Amino acid sequence: MLVRTEFLVLNLALIPVIAFVFAVLPPPVHSLDEPGALSSTIGQISGERMMADVAALSGIAFNGRQTGTADDLRSAQWVADRFRTSQLSLVAIPTDRLNTLDGSGEGLGPPTGFMSTPHKAIIIAPAPVLQISTARVPLNQELGTDFLPVLDSPSAHVRAPIVFVGYGIVDPALSVNEYDGVDVNNCIVLFLRGKPDHYKGAITHADKIRIAGQKGAIAYLTVTGPILSAYEMRRGVTGRPSAFYSLSAEADTLPGAWISTSQVEYILAGTDPSKPRHLRTIQEQLDASPTSRSFRTDYFGVLEWEVRQEQGLLINVVATLPGTDPKMVNEAIVIGAHRDHFGKQAGLLFPGADDNASGTAVMLEVARTIAKLPIKPKRTLLFLSFSGEEQGLLGSRLYVGKPVIPLDHTKAMINIDHAGIGNGRLTVGAAGVDKNLVQEAGRSAGLADKVDVFGFFPGGDHVPFKEAGIPTVTVVSGGTHLHFHQPTDTVETLNQEILVSAARYVLALAWQLANAP
After folding, report:
1. Do 282 and 192 touch, CB atoms closer than 8 A?
2. Dist. CA 401–CA 498, nearest whole Å
3. Which phi and psi (to 5°) does residue 322 adopt?
């Protein structure tokens, strides 16, 4: 039986006591100027060990690590064991009230190092159906290739006409109404992902669902258009559907699916070969002008699938390596990576090797390597294995709301994500951190010609820290990630040399941040 806890937080009153204990430890030499100290440490990074960790985390033992499932609980226990083996200190996180999941009140405490909160996992049953048809000709779509249900979709039992509504935006303040001229009541709406070039407002996928529901739609389909944004091109986005969560409020949620670009081209072309419509042309028109291009297609859609819910826990795993400088021991550098992925959905396993078993493996290797050093950093290093990243950064938001070390004592946060595939370069996003220091870490790691430094990245577990005013550095492997949010994201697609580069860089950066004046 899983154990339910309330939000688990360290009593901040304990911080001075912890700091005192750390401070009385005899401080070893910890100067960055110690001859060969950093280069010798970097040389101990093991690519074979990281690949083994990625293989374990992305294997069937953890079934895709979906937040709130028993699989993710096991992955949290696995990470905690790795921290212990590396001789890190798992943080004892007390709570005022402990209950079992069934409410029996047995008072079972959480394992040391676990920060958790109740979480409901939504799981789509195998063999979902999406059918596109005219009155006489049904066309079944292939799961994973032609469509994939949105992962927090409710159960679907829908047969209705399909109405194309452009990007699905209604914003009177900017004179945009893509529902103008069409009736979508009791229909399935079809809209493009993202937003048109001309639109300067903010719009989320959840907003589009809410608007569709207000207009009377009973389900939706979404698609990536053939004209990709610069971000989509960098990510290697294709016309295939990908796994994702709508993140819409439960009351607003409609059943929905991501459908392939090729299938939408077929739908929009229509049944009259003398008057075909072309998706690229329509997207070009939508990008250029707010004029509505919406219309009722010639096709009906059938959406059929079942969803079950599993009550469990969202679990962060927290470990520390105490600092050694009495003046800096109260200060922390956070090194984090999310370990959750999508689990097993609609009968498809999403292994999540690159996303983000790779980042987790890098974090564990950095922790192991630094912990074995006879020379320890001045500031405390706090290692965080987050869950819930794929569902709206839930784990990192949980931590920032209830930090183990006060945020005003947290000097920087390093986030590692997607660290195993690409072109051999590292992409680093820095916000509030001196870029000279960020670049110097690359030189210290022997990677000066392989590190590309940019500003703040808008997505990932560093975001809640940045919003709280903490300097952040995000480390990802450069180039396209062709298996992003796909069942094909397996350990066989990873490049061991890229993992080693990422770990060398993170170690050098953490060392410099932990010892900087």
Report:
1. no
2. 33
3. -60, 140
pLDDT tens digit sequence for 174-225: 999 999 999 999 999 999 999 999 999 999 999 999 999 999 999 999 999 9
340: which 2 tokens?
């959750």
Query: What CATH number does the domain located at 123-307 have?
Result: 3.50.30.30
Q: How many residues does the chain have?
A: 517
Report the candidate in 159, 165, 164, 163 with the shortest Cα–Cα distance to residue 133.
159
Same fold yes or no, 3-20+58-90+313-515 and 123-307: no
CA atoms within 13 A on the CB side of 285: 12
Spell out a b/e string for 32-63, using b for 16 or more CB atoms within 10 Å of the CB, else e: eeeeebbeebbeebbbebbbebbbbbbbeebb
- pTM for this predicted structure: 0.89
Compute the distance between CA of residue 197 and CA of residue 191 in angstroms, rounded to an integer: 15
As a whole number, the mean pLDDT across the chain is 89
For residue 195, count CB atoms less than 10 angstroms from its CB and return exposed for 0-12, middle for 13-18, buried for 19 or more.
buried
**CA angle in degrees (0–180, nearest 5) for 246-250-255:** 55
Task: Copy the structure tokens of residue 449.
Answer: 């010609």
Give the CA diameter of the chain: 84
> Which residues, at least 6 apart from 493, have a Cβ–Cβ distance to it below 8 Å?
353, 354, 420, 421, 483
Neighbours of 238 (CB within 10 A): 16
Crossing angle of helices 70-85 and 47-57, rounded to 10° = 160
3-20+58-90+313-515 classified as CATH 3.40.630.10: yes
Distances (CA, A) of 345 to 303, 431, 448, 484, 498: 16, 35, 41, 16, 29
Residue 14 has pLDDT above 60, yes or no: no
Secondary structure, 3-state, 451-500: EEEECCCCCCCCHHHHHCCCCEEEEEECCCCCCCCCCCCCHHHCCHHHHH
Confidence band, pLDDT 50/70/90 cuts, at residue 251: low
Which SS3 state, helix, strand or coil, does residue 441 take?
Answer: helix
Give domain limits for the chain.
3-20+58-90+313-515, 123-307
Residue 66: name the closest of 250, 249, 313 by CA: 313
Per the CB < 8 A criterion, the answer to whether 439 and 473 are in contact is: no
Residue holding tokens 């796909």?
Answer: 486
CB atoms within 10 A of CB 131: 16
Which residues, including other chains, have CB under 8 Å from residue 465's CB and lie 6 or more apart?
334, 396, 400, 410, 413, 415, 472
**How do residues 120-157 score in pLDDT, each as one tens digit?**
999 999 999 999 998 677 788 999 999 999 999 999 99
Return the minimum-mean-pLDDT range out of 88-92, 172-176, 352-356, 464-468.
88-92
